[in-house]
């Protein structure tokens, strides 16, 4: 598992872009994690999946609610990472009205999640291999803080915990 003071491994993540901008087309766009973390302070929170109860009712909405306070502490971006495809992450973000407060990053194949050592095997429950619930603060690609939830818990990866650790 990734640890504090380690560099986040490179992987490809995808983000559904709903407005075309310079360098980003409509639809899923691929990004190299190492490249988009360069020179930025980013709060990354990972969760088991889009549209799941705790994730939809508490995890993402908490980050949307506290985004301004988090960014006021010098954070450039907030990412939500889940092992879902970019279409699902885009639709979920739209449903939760995240706007530009949280980047909904798709790790559809689990490439980043596996490289971080934070996968969660839910095959027996029909959910495949997902991500553990976690939060990390990354500065210029290096982990400054990492909190991984115990199974079934939601105590250390929420937005309030991110604020406390910034």
TrEMBL record:
EC number(s) given by UniProt: 1.11.1.27
Enzyme superclass (EC): oxidoreductase
Transmembrane segments annotated in the record for this chain: none
Keyword field contains Cell membrane: no
Active site residues according to the UniProt entry: 55
Keyword vocabulary terms for this entry: Antioxidant, Oxidoreductase, Peroxidase, Redox-active center
CC annotations in GO: cytoplasm
Single GO BP term: cellular response to oxidative stress
Source domain of life: Bacteria
Keyword Oxidoreductase: yes
One Pfam family recorded for the sequence: Redoxin
InterPro entries: PRX5-like, Redoxin, Thioredoxin-like_sf, Thioredoxin_domain
Record function comment: Thiol-specific peroxidase that catalyzes the reduction of hydrogen peroxide and organic hydroperoxides to water and alcohols, respectively. Plays a role in cell protection against oxidative stress by detoxifying peroxides.
Family: Belongs to the peroxiredoxin family. Prx5 subfamily.
Name of this protein: Glutathione-dependent peroxiredoxin
The organism's taxonomic lineage, starting at the top: Bacteria, Pseudomonadati, Pseudomonadota, Betaproteobacteria, Burkholderiales
């Amino acid at each position: 598992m990734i640890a504090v003071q380690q560099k986040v491994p490179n992987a490809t993540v995808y983000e559904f872009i709903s407005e075309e901008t310079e360098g980003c087309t409509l639809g899923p766009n691929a990004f190299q994690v190492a490249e988009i973390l360069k020179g930025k302070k980013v709060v990354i929170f990972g969760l088991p999946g889009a549209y799941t109860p705790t994730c939809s009712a508490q995890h993402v909405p908490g980050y949307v609610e506290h985004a301004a306070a988090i960014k006021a502490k010098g954070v450039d971006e907030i990412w939500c990472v889940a092992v879902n495809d970019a279409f699902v992450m885009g639709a979920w973000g739209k449903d939760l009205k995240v706007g530009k407060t949280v980047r909904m990053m798709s790790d559809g194949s689990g490439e980043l999640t596996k490289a971080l050592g934070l996968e969660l095997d839910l095959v027996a429950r029909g959910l495949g291999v997902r991500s553990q619930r976690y939060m990390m603060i990354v500065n210029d690609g290096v982990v400054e803080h990492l909190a991984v939830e115990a199974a079934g818990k939601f105590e250390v990866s929420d937005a309030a915990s991110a604020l406390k650790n910034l």
